[in-house]
């Protein structure tokens, strides 16, 4: 169970939601564990909402309202608290990244977001959202850079990034951007003690995760989760049996990938091919 901590209820919509949930729960004479049992979740999970560690969830808020007899009060606060600079389908993933102890990602055609340079992220955003205005592009790129700066934190998660060789050859915004991006991967792989980079070569053939981006996260504060993403959509998966299947598939991809040193050598070789005219 998450112990109460002092929060300013008016600091943000998330802290106001948490303070209201706690107030209503205590008024109903329920512990976090008792409320969690009735809402089909753990007391720790309830505590993470009350302390603004996690963003409130629509389905859980609906259950809380039903159990506490509060109409749609928490559901309305939930909609306010879930507003984010990130797309709604990805905002919960960003939140879980902040709690993660380990992040394992497979990316079939692009450099993983946490490892992107700003120029690469900008070129990619402009290509995938061709009708977005400059302010929207800047906001999205800034959000991605905020995520990547987590790697500079002494308590950064262990990141295991596997990308397909195809990702090294998709030219995003010109030779210089690509060369700098690949050199950034090399630098992370060589010098960052908590980042491992591997490449699945073309010669490895098909594998279980070849259909799209997959991210696996573990945390000391939440159950393991998997996330899969396609164009303009994504799915966060927390069902234990399905998460276990994704972990087994990731193990197969890791086995098919080149060893870290060989992966960095391949990246370095491709980087040299991106010559500025």
TrEMBL record:
CDD domains: HTH_XRE
Domain HTH cro/C1-type: 21-74
A Pfam family matched in the record: HTH_31
Single GO term (MF): DNA binding
InterPro entries per UniProt: Cro/C1-type_HTH (IPR001387), DUF5753 (IPR043917), Lambda_DNA-bd_dom_sf (IPR010982)
Gene3D superfamilies, sorted: lambda repressor-like DNA-binding domains
UniProt superkingdom: Bacteria
PROSITE patterns: HTH_CROC1
SMART domains given in the database record: HTH_XRE (SM00530)
Protein name stated in the entry: Helix-turn-helix domain-containing protein
Species per Swiss-Prot/TrEMBL record: Streptomyces radiopugnans
Lineage: Bacteria, Bacillati, Actinomycetota, Actinomycetes, Kitasatosporales
